[in-house]
Amino acid sequence: MGCGSSKEAVQQQQEPTPTPPRPPPSKKPSTPPPPTQPSTTPTVPGGGAPTAIYKYLPKNAEKFSVRNVYDGDTLTLVDERRVRLLGIDTPELAEKQPYAQEAKDYTKLHCYQRSVWLVIDGEDHYGRVLAHVFVPSDEHKGFYLCINEGLVEKGFAYTYIPSKDKQTFNWDKLIKLQTQARKAKRGLWSNFKDNVTVHVTLNGAAYHQDKGCQHLQKVKHLKEMKVSAAMDQGLHPCRTCTTG
C-alpha cells in the first residue's frame, strides 16, 4: 500500500497542470450615434412632400376649448368668440357650393367640443379672431395637425389672403399643399382642367376669369396666364367673377 501511494504521488507531480481556458476577448462597447435634432415634421408617407403635421406646437400657441363649428373655416369658442381660420377659404354652405359640407365635417371631426391650440394674428373687420388652429393628430400620436393646412391638403379649401402683404407664416407651404391636392385631384380639384386662361393684376391677390370684372375696370395693365400658374403664385379666385 505504501509503494503504490508513492507511485501515484510521483505520477501526479509529473502530469502537467491543465491550463485554465482563457476568457474571450472583451468587446469594446459600440459608440452610440450622436443624438439628432428632432424634426419639425414626422416621417409620413409622401417622400418628403409637405404635410399638415407638426412635431411641436408653435411657441405662441394658446389653448382654448371649442363650443361649435360653424363651417369649414369658422368655429366658435366656449367664450363665444368666433374664430376664422387664416390663409384659407372653404366653400360656402349657404350657397351649397361643392365640398362645403365635407370641409365642415373635417373641421368638426377634429375640433368640435375639443381642446385646440390657436396661433392668433389679430381680428378681421367682423370682429372674428384670425388664427391657425392646431389639434393633437389622431393618425400620428404625439404630433399635431394644423387644421388650416389639413383642409387645403384634403382639397377642401383654397389658399386665401386678402392682399399680398398679409401672407401667413406658412404661406409657401399652403401653396405647395394646394398644388399637391390639385395634381392628385382631391376634393375641389376632382374635375379640375387646366384649360382656362385668367387675368391677373401686378399687385393683386386674386385671379379673374372675366376681363370685364368690376374689380378690373380701372386697371390698365393685366397679365394673362393659365389658372394653375396663378394658383402656384398664391393667387385665389376672385369672389365676384370666378367660380373656382
Would you kindly provide a written description of the structure presented here, covering whatever features stand out?
With 244 residues, this protein is an alpha+beta fold. 21% of the residues lie in helices and 23% in strands. The protein has helices at 2-14, 100-111, 147-154, 171-183, 227-232; strands at 53-54, 62-71, 74-77, 82-85, 88-89, 115-123, 129-136, 144-146, 158-159, 197-200, 206-208, 223-226, 236-237. The strands form 3 sheets. The protein has a 5-stranded mixed barrel with strand order 2-3-4-7-6. α3 (147-154) packs parallel to α4 (171-183). It is globular. The model is unreliable at 5-13 and 26-46 (pLDDT under 50).
Salient structural properties:
5 helices, alpha+beta, five-stranded mixed beta barrel, globular, 21% helix, 244 residues, four-stranded mixed sheet, single chain, 23% strand
Instruction: Name the poorly predicted regions.
Output: 5-13, 26-46
Give the helix/strand class: alpha+beta
Q: Report the portion of residues in β strands.
A: 15-25%
The order of strands across the largest sheet is: 2-3-4-7-6
- Sum up the overall morphology in one term: globular
Binned, the helix content reads 10-25%
Rg, Cα atoms, Å: 33 Å
Query: What is the typical, i.e. mean, pLDDT?
Result: 85
Q: Can you summarize the main beta sheet?
A: 5 strands, mixed, barrel
Helix-strand sequence: HEEEEEHEEEHEHEEEHE
What is the number of helices? Answer: 5
Q: What's the total count of β strands?
A: 13
First-to-last CA distance? 116 Å
